[in-house]
Amino acid sequence: MTTLIVRDERPEDLASVRSVNEKAFGQKDEADLVDRLRHEHFVLASLVAEREKQIVGHILFTRMWIQTPGPPVSAVALAPVAVLPDQQRQGIGAELIRYGLNWLHQKGETIVIVLGSPNYYPRFGFSAEKARHLVSPFPPEAFMALELKTGALDGMAGRVKYPDSFGI
To answer: I need a labelling partner for 51 at 20 to 30 A (CA). Which of 70, 86, 130, 146 fits?
Structure first.
């Protein structure tokens, strides 16, 4: 198996990133979301997985907030993570997630939110239990949070606010 490189997205990667998202999800919705979030400047990190100079995966982390009785609390949305269909189940998505979470931690981010499979995301530390006091329109078992700083969600309750691009 050839080496997988995870790196920051570059301007020349945009068409490939769009293609990866369209192929991974079998539709344009996620690719359109990525484009809107980029255009609206909510992107914190857009990372690609590259194998043999071909982009085979992509992950996006964007700014979001938790609306509390006090000031809003900054958080990060992980969405989407995409891997080309013929490259799935080889650990590429997991490598993108681990790399991205480490990057966010290094940047001082404290809370990451994901909507996804309760059978997949807990292996990275995401927990529906950690998100239980956060109000969202999503099924509670699929709405999960991760603390990049221990205790970041202690005593926190409020409604999550995604950028308008998400349409939520």
So the answer is: 146
CB-neighbour burial class of residue 12 (10 A; exposed 0-12, middle 13-18, buried 19+): exposed
pLDDT in tens, 6-64: 999 999 999 999 999 999 999 999 999 999 999 999 999 999 999 999 999 999 999 99
Question: Cα–Cα distance between 48 and 28 in angstroms, integer?
Answer: 18
* Whole-number CA gyration radius for the chain: 16
- Dist CA 156 CA 91 (whole Å): 33
Contact 35, 87 (CB under 8 A): no
Pair 77, 162: CB distance under 8 Å: yes
Nearest residue to 54 via CA among 88, 30, 20, 89: 20
- Asked if residue 146 lies in contact with residue 129, where contact means CB atoms within 8 angstroms, the answer is no
134 alpha-carbon distance from chain centroid: 17
